[in-house]
Amino acid sequence: MLFGERMRTATVSVTTGLVLLLVGCTGDPAPEPTVEPTPEPTVEPVEPTTLTVSLFGPEEMLAAWRDVLGEYDEATETVQVEFIAHPDRESAMAFLDSGEQPDLFLVDRLDLGAVIEADLNQRVDGLLADRNVEFGDGYHRAGLQGFSSAGALQCMPYAHSPLVMYYNTNLIDFDRMRARGLYAARPGGRWNFAQFEAAAEFATRPRRNTRGFAVSPDLFSLTPFLIAGGGRLFDDALTHLAFTEPSSQAALEASLELLRSPHLTPTEKQLLRRDPVELFEAGRIAMVPGYRDLVPRLRQVEGLEFDIMPMPSIERRATVGKLTGLCLGSQTEDPELAADLLAHLISDEAVTPVSETGYILPSNLAVSGSDAFRQPGEFPTHPEGFIRDMRDVVHPPLITVWDELTTAVADLMVELLLTPLLDLEDVALRIQEASMQILAPHLLLDEEESADEESADEGAGDEDSGD
Fold it and tell me: 142 near 391, Cβ under 8 Å?
């Protein structure tokens, strides 16, 4: 470098001397060269494409997403992100039902059937494969299965959680149970219905006003016991809930005796004052079913130490799951840019801060296997149970009327668990009829018309016999 710089200096000195010599010979000053200015190219400013993203969740998750989207917005000159935040899935679905068409939106799997039927989404497998998304190795199989329909990945799984059994480790100590010769499970392992019952008996202390467990009287809380006992939720044609079928009746008989136990469960008076989770927080019950999103709430309870176990097996292992996925809007004007943003939102970099809030088990395997999910030193003690128990999740069918169905049978679920004297066959029949009103009302109408015709025929026959 130094040699080159010196060469350029020497050349300038020689040239300057030659110019002075020529000036001295002619007596006229040398004309100054004219340099035409080079016109700068005219660049038309490019307006960034606006992408709307609709997401729902607790405020901590929304704040994490806001940061992730803000960083993407700043780093990408071609895109301007508009974030639409909702507190829960109901609000998010109301937004979609109003006719709004976001480019990307989060959906609960319970609403996936309605989204597909309304043509609100477009398949994402091809677009994400073009962006080198490793479906088989990078994302949980249960999530991919849950958001697949008609031979395509309809939305990209984002987070999921099995329904598990939370337990108070101060009220249930499996080591002490074994020391007393009781039929105890292993912490963080699996267990059967008899071990679940033994734990509930161990935790029930009338003098301390503690009971073994409480199960919410709703369809999804009861479903794991129904399926684990060998029953099923729907008939083959999806016209009604299959509580009247012999296998379902046997499964309910196997579990309801324990689930309805007045000795091991809260009194009706207690449940009127507090729901099962509130009773668990107060230390009044030892076990309660819940999903991963319950963790941050329980961590806020001073003195509460808790862990998780799977839902107990009866004839098989089974549970239900809560799944969310990111969908690509069917009306997006730029699917390529929207798919770029989708690929970013499911990446390790973008999922990690959302996972750190504690609310989700990410479908992204790298993040779910990291400390961003496991959060060592925090409760629950065995968070890997959430990952393992996803294998036992039974996905319900993609029907479009989940909210209407659960509302239609809500009182009957309460009757199954809380009524003092239960006629199981009668309640199961009423559950079938109530669910058919939602799933297949035309069949009930046909039955009523057939019954009216039979009555009319019988009446005509009576008149004929009278003549």
Answer: yes
DSSP 300: T
What is the CATH class of 49-160+322-392? alpha beta
What is the reported pLDDT for 18?
A: 30
Class of domain 164-320+394-442: alpha beta
pLDDT in tens, 5-42: 323 333 333 333 433 333 343 445 545 555 566 566 55
| Residues of the chain predicted below pLDDT 50 | 1-27, 30, 467
Q: Is 418 exposed, middle or buried (0-12, 13-18, 19+ CB in 10 A)?
A: middle
| Per-residue pLDDT tens digits for 361-377 | 999 999 999 999 999 99
Residue 228's nearest CA partner among 262, 187, 258 is 258
DSSP characters over 196-259: HHHHHHHH-BGGGTBEEE---SSHHHHHHHHHHTT--SB-TTSSSB-TTSHHHHHHHHHHHHHH
pLDDT for 136 equals: 84
Pick from 43, 127, 68: which is nearest to 327 by CA?
Answer: 127
99 CB burial (10 A radius; 0-12, 13-18, 19+): exposed
> What confidence score (pLDDT) does residue 17 get?
40
The three-point CA angle 112-50-153 to 5° equals 25
For CATH 3.40.190.10, list the domain ranges present in the chain: 49-160+322-392, 164-320+394-442
Q: Which pTM was predicted?
A: 0.86
> Cα 330 to the chain's mean position, in Å?
21
